[in-house]
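Reopening this one. Same input as before:
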Amino acid sequence: MLRCLVALFLLLASAGAIDLPKDGQPILFLGDSITHSGHYVDDFELFLAVKYPDQKFTVIDCGLPSETVSGLSEAGHAGGKFPRPDLHERLDRVLATVKPKLVFACYGMNCGIYLPFDEARFAKYREGIERLRAKVKAAGAEIVHLTPPIFDPLPLKGRVVPPNLAKDGQQSENYDEVLTRYSAWLVEQGKTQGWTVIDVHSAMAKVLQEARRSDPTFTFAKDGVHANEAGHHVIASAIVAAFDVPFDFDSTGYTPMRAAIRQRGRILTDAYLSAAGHQRPGMSKGLPLPEAQAKAAAIVIPSAPK
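Same output, byte for byte:
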């Protein structure tokens, strides 16, 4: 049933054509912990491997947990251990290290700091997105903006706070309204400014709403934030819809391909994050870049089943 719901709402998810790089020029994914977890990135790379078997693609996931594009951080983040990383602290180095031709960027979940809507925080988000876009374009790459995934307060019952009582460091029960407004702004830039925007938020929200008609407890994220693999399939399906090429991520015939893509992707993620540098403690240290690239290249991706 979930597969049917995803297909039903993908028309809401995409806007604008996307040109894939040729000859293995890198495709870079930027974002927070949802992107770093990599499942929707793996799904996208699986799509490329199945649908374009004669082309070479290099997909690099440089998502960083806790990161914002707004530069904001709540007081006492991570128990006071460190403030949220700011993408702009590392962006120039990431672009110089990866040298992408195409960038997918998914920010917003952390940028409103889980509090009710605030114009000043919204302005910081818009400014951060515009700075990101300008830097990517100046580096000679195209950028695709993904609206933020949904925040789901249902599994957090008793832990989220009414918006009129929410304080710094807490999670407001209406936080998804903030993400909805951030998403609407991005979509508007697609309509009025010609940006390429994929509306992940609307796709997830619609599928969630319909799924709850038969299962009121259905959720993509037990912690309200970090989507499970089903949620990542919705994100990836929204991206793939922009290419107007039908694809079924749930086929069990892709299991060996998915496993190899996952193994290769994790090696490259750790290596590129370490090579570019960042200010987020607790991250795995990657192999030196040439060693990681050689190790990743040695992993053979099985062919798609006929």
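So the earlier flakiness isn't reproducible anymore. For the record, DSSP finds ten helices and five strands in the chain.
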